[in-house]
Design a protein that fits this description.
Strand content: over 45%
Helix content: under 10%
Number of helices: 0
Structural class: mainly beta
Length: 110
């Protein structure tokens, strides 16, 4: 809700914290990729911001947060804040580790 926060902890230790007025859909957890042997964990951020402390389930996992205009892949043992601005832009701040912006107007590694 607009006045509450939420924290989700996965069984592997990954923690996702949702800020006020955040909409997040957990789309897949370890879904088989159609193009490789990798497994996809996708979170869809529609509004607001999430703070992620990510731990991989296994070496074949791709963990990413999708926004309307970007996909942010978060590496193992990384901590990141991913925010969708009111203008619809994706803002990524990495506290520890690495995150990779997979598509969007600026395809750069953070």
């Amino acid at each position: 809700s607009d006045s509450r926060r939420c924290e989700v902890q996965f069984d592997n230790g990954t923690i996702v914290r949702l800020d006020f007025a955040t909409e997040l859909k957990i789309e897949t957890i370890l879904a088989q990729s159609l193009s490789s042997a990798r497994k996809l964990s996708n979170l869809l951020l529609a509004r607001g911001q999430v703070y992620i402390m990510h731990k991989k389930y296994d070496s074949m996992e791709i963990f990413q947060v999708m926004t309307p205009h970007a996909a942010v892949k978060v590496n193992h043992n990384s901590v990141a804040l991913i925010k969708l601005t009111p203008e619809g832009e994706t803002d990524v701040q990495v506290e520890r580790g690495k995150a990779l912006l997979l598509f969007g107007p600026d395809q750069s590694q953070i």
